[in-house]
Specification:
The complex is a heterodimer of chains A (294) and B (228). Chain A contains 9 helices and 4 strands, in the order ααβαβαβαβαααα. With 294 residues, chain A is α+β, with helices and mostly antiparallel strands. Chain A folds into 2 domains: 184 residues, no CATH class; 98 residues, Alpha-Beta Plaits. A 4-stranded antiparallel β-sheet of chain A has the order 2-3-1-4. In chain A, α2 packs antiparallel against α6. Chain A is elongated and about 100 Å long. Chains A and B meet through α1, α7 and α8 of A and α2 and α3 of B. Chain B: GO terms for molecular function: ATP binding; ATP hydrolysis activity; transmembrane transporter activity.
Chain lengths: 294, 228
């Protein structure tokens, strides 16, 4: 039987009124959902940014190998060839002592006198690019054992480390969030249950005069769904504004930058709304299933 | 028309409320159901609007086969059976007119129909001038008239009343009975469970007495017959 528009309006009004009938329970349920989705949203924002960082920073694909000063210059091409032949190495670029010093001065700019008078403390170095960033530690180890290589440095490996830390953080967050989502559903279903309880007389009369179960459920369904949506809107607004602010702050330190606000937040907000809706709908359905057998 | 064929009802706690009740109540009749408390009277009434299911036997009410009714059909059946209770069961926050309209709103009747029907039943029970009052501003008798108006607003074929005068003084009880008689005159079947000996003896109808889960007596124009 098709539901009339007027009936939908009625369910909407009644469901909305229900929110205020047990104000504190509604508040608790909405807060629980909001906190849950705030954490979910924040970790989404974080992981999206870290992922893009790891994709974008080319550095992670390369590392430096410093040549021992004992190796004469004429041996260097042979050494380069040896490095190139290591499995997984894509390119090998040579940076001489002199070139290294020039770059260093460039970086230090006005402070370059700091190293004037030190002579040239820099070694010859090779920059190795690899095919797979995850192989860096293993390849670097191999390179270290090549004769003539004094030291390897893969500072860029911060990213893989960050990635592995992130995986742990993510797995913990998933468990945490799953628990919170269950709690949010539980609170919503309890709030709806209390509404049903306080209105059981009305429900009894509705049943006696021949209202269908669907009709009786309408307002409670609306109530639960609204709680879910409100619970999603609050963290959405907070995260959106918060992200915009943090991004602005980060932009003051040039090498770092976060992804554009709309690009990240439009998706995150959609995810949060979908989750809120799901929690609300599920919570109200669960509470009604048992309770409406009058 | 109401018909029961060898109806048994045993509750989950093991209490047998009805053991083999068969009865036929033709359309348009007015029947008193009497008997001591706990004898099965309430169960007998509740089976008619499918508040309870029989353990065994067949029940037909206004063309519905009650014991075979699917869950989804229960609401449809209830629109054809008006129910009146001892405690009126009105919604305190709604006015008289709203309480009556409620029964039509929840079955999604059109606004026009609701207005028209509410006006009609208010006239029938004589409460047009109190349509905007709240239940607590009315006397018990008036509240019961509102409840009857609500039961009638769907134009049911059958009205089942469970001790409708149980909370009322003799004058109001009499007024309620007269109202139910008027409803009956229009062709609606009335089944009224009651403890009110004066009414039963003064206004002779068919009397069905239930004792120990069985019909112990069934007389046209019977007496109340108990000394309680």
């Amino acid at each position: 039987m098709a539901m009339k528009i007027r009936t939908i309006g009625r369910h909407g009004r009644e469901g909305f009124k229900n929110l205020f009938r047990n104000g504190w329970m509604t508040f608790a349920a909405i807060s629980a959902v909001a906190v849950t989705l705030l954490i979910l949203g924040a970790s989404l924002v974080l992981s999206v940014n870290i992922q893009s960082m790891s994709l974008n920073i080319e550095n992670q694909l390369q590392f430096n190998a410093y040549v021992s000063d004992r190796v004469p210059n004429k041996e260097l091409p042979k050494l380069a060839h040896e490095l190139r032949s290591i499995h997984g190495v894509r390119t090998v670029t040579f940076i001489s002592k002199a070139e290294g010093l020039k770059r260093m001065k460039q970086i230090l700019q006005s402070n370059s006198d700091l190293i004037n008078g030190l002579g040239n403390p820099l070694p010859n170095e090779f920059v190795l690019q690899v095919n797979n960033p995850h192989q860096i530690p293993q390849i670097a180890n191999e390179v270290k054992h090549v004769r003539g290589i004094e030291k390897v440095q893969y500072g860029a490996s911060v990213v893989p480390k960050l990635l592995s830390v992130m995986t742990i953080v993510r797995d913990t967050a998933i468990i945490f969030i799953a628990g919170l989502i269950v709690m949010g559903m539980f609170l919503i279903s309890n709030t709806v249950k209390i509404t049903i309880f306080t209105r059981r007389r009305e429900i009894e009369i509705m049943k006696l005069v021949g209202a269908t179960d669907g009709f009786i459920r309408g307002p409670f369904f609306v109530e639960g769904t609204l709680m879910g949506i409100f619970g999603a809107l609050i963290p959405s607004v907070l995260l959106y504004e918060g992200y915009r602010w943090i991004r602005h702050q980060v932009a003051l330190f040039p090498p770092f930058s976060l992804l554009p606000t709309p690009y990240v937040m439009d998706r995150v907000v959609l995810v949060l709304l979908a989750c809120g809706l799901f929690i609300g709908v599920w919570g109200s359905l669960v509470s009604m299933r048992k309770f409406l057998r009058v | 028309m109401i018909e029961m064929q060898d109806v048994w009802k045993e509750y989950e706690n093991g209490v047998t409320a009805l053991s083999g009740v068969s009865v036929r109540i033709p359309q348009g009749s007015f029947v008193y159901v009497v008997g001591p408390s706990g004898a099965g009277k309430s169960t007998f009434i509740k089976l008619m609007y499918r508040q309870e299911r029989p353990t065994k036997g067949h029940i037909f009410v206004g063309g519905f086969n009650i014991e075979r009714l699917r869950e989804s059909q229960i609401p449809i059946m209830r629109r054809h059976v008006g129910v009146v209770f001892q405690d009126y069961k009105l919604l305190q926050q709604l006015t008289v007119a709203e309480n009556i309209a409620f029964a039509l709103e929840v079955i999604e009747a059109s606004r026009r129909t609701i207005q028209k029907r509410v006006q009609e039943v208010l006239e029938l029970v004589g409460l047009e001038d109190k349509r905007n009052m709240l239940p607590r501003e009315l006397s018990g008798g008036e509240q019961q008239r509102v409840a009857i108006a609500r039961a009638l607003v769907n134009k049911p074929k059958v009205v089942v009343a469970d001790e409708p005068t149980g909370n009322l003084d003799p004058d109001n009880s009499w007024a309620i009975l007269k109202l139910l008689e008027r409803v009956n005159d229009r062709g609606t079947t009335i089944v009224m469970a009651t403890h009110n000996r004066e009414l039963v003896n003064a206004c002779k109808k068919r009397v069905i007495a239930i004792e120990n889960g069985r019909i112990s007596r069934d007389e046209e124009r019977g007496d109340y017959g108990y000394e309680d």
